[in-house]
Amino acid sequence: MNVLAMVGSLRRESYNLQLARAIEERNRKRFGMEYAELGALPFFNEDLEQEAPAPVRTLWEQVRSADAVLIVTPEYNWSVPGVLKNALDWLSRVEQPLIGKPVMTAGVSTGAMGTIRAQLHLREILSAPGIRARLLPPAGNEVLVTLAAQKFDAASGRLTDEATLQHLDGVIGRFVDFAAAAR
Ligand SMILES: Cc1cc2nc3c(=O)[nH]c(=O)nc-3n(C[C@H](O)[C@H](O)[C@H](O)COP(=O)(O)O)c2cc1C
């Protein structure tokens, strides 16, 4: 099984990127993970979509060939970051490779809300007609990592909070089963 990770932060030391890496490292026996380069995408422009720029075609192909997509994102101003929305807009047109694709969402914030507002918006976006992803049911499967500075090691950047890692293992196990059942 192969999973495509879409990370909504372009920051080099992003907590969200580190969350994706923790998922990758702890599940090497279950799936391989590739990372989409959302920072390489131009701004969505309808004039370009029929002869889409190379990074857009790469993203379409990565999503098409993935068995499942993991979206890990910070919350920016109570919603999803523009880079992630931009990627989803490209994915909603012409090729529409997310239709029926197993997707789960996760996020880390430095504050106490753990990206809940961003993920609620994200799930609405993922249900739009051109996207129609097959969402892992959120009940029991929400990954809302709060107070990042307390849960990631400052020197290595790695996620070290044991309770978070345990929760993550359970959710990812259910996501793998969900994605396998959709194949
Ligand atoms: C432009 C901007 C807007 C933000 N808005 C929110 C917000 O609405 N809610 C929240 O919990 N954190 C917010 N934050 C703080 C992020 O949780 C924090 O910067 C986090 O580290 C970003 O994720 P990253 O480490 O993966 O880059 C915001 C940060 C930025 C840069």
Structure description:
With 183 residues, the chain is an alpha/beta fold. It is 38% helix and 14% strand. It has helices at residues 15-26, 54-65, 82-91, 116-126, 148-151, 162-182, and strands spanning 2-7, 32-35, 68-72, 102-108, 134-135, 144-145. Strands 1, 2, 3, 4, 5 and 6 form a six-stranded parallel sheet that branches. It binds flavin mononucleotide (FMN). Flavin mononucleotide (FMN) binds next to helix 1.
Q: Which class of secondary structure composition applies to the elements?
A: alpha/beta
Which ligands occur here?
flavin mononucleotide
Give the % helix: 25-40%
Fraction in beta strands: 5-15%
| Spatial separation of the terminal alpha carbons | 10 Å
Helices and strands, in N-to-C order?
EHEHEHEHEEHH
The strand count comes to 6
Largest sheet data:
6 strands, parallel
Number of DSSP helices?
6
Average pLDDT across residues?
98
- Which regions are unreliable across 5 or more consecutive residues at pLDDT < 50? none
Radius of gyration over C-alpha positions, nearest whole angstrom: 15 Å
Cα shape: globular
